[in-house]
Amino acid sequence: MPIAFISVILLPVIGNAAEHASAIMFAMKEKLDISLGVAIGSSTQISMFGIPFCVIIGWIMERHMDLNFQLFETVTLFITVLVVAFMLQDGTSNYLRGMMLILSYIIVAASFYVHVDPTFGESKLPNTFKSFSFK
């Protein structure tokens, strides 16, 4: 299982299980504003505190960690923020919007499962161009 899949998909789902359960309970009681506040606040908390904290702990443990995201992760994050912003802009919800968000999450999870970032020092050229020598 790829490390990116574990860190972007599995860890947040398992680590924020209590917040997800409370957001679902508030949504079932038709308290959408509290439900969205819990769900969005949880992800904001992780991005603003959890990730930088892990980087600092990595430096203390002398492990190479930084916030240098690859193109795939950056584009995925940008598109995810846009989709959620468009879904929340009018303040209403229905089953179709929820289904679209769930399907979007499944697509992002599948793409992180199959995507492999190039390792440090590896050429980013496609395999067809590696056989040519540019002199």
What does this structure look like?
- The chain has 135 residues and is mostly helical.
- The protein has helices at 3-15, 17-28, 32-60, 71-88, 95-114, 127-130.
- α2 (17-28) packs antiparallel against α3 (32-60) and α4 (71-88) packs antiparallel against α5.
- The radius of gyration is 19 Å and the shape is globular.
- Mean pLDDT is 81; it is low at 128-135.
Quickly list its features.
mainly alpha, disordered C terminus, 135 residues, 0% strand, 71% helix
Count of individual beta strands:
0
Q: Helix proportion of residues, in percent?
A: over 70%
> Into which percentage range does the β-strand content fall?
under 5%
Radius of gyration: 19 Å
Overall outline: globular
Order of helices and strands: HHHHHH
Alpha-beta classification: mainly alpha
Individual helix count: 6
Kindly report the average pLDDT value.
81
Largest sheet: none
Q: Determine the N-to-C terminus distance.
A: 39 Å
Runs in which pLDDT lies below 50 for 5 or more consecutive residues are 128-135
Short account of what is shown:
The chain has 135 residues and is mostly helical.
Helix/strand layout:
Elements: H1 3-15, H2 17-28, H3 32-60, H4 71-88, H5 95-114, H6 127-130
Helix pairs in contact: 2-3, 4-5
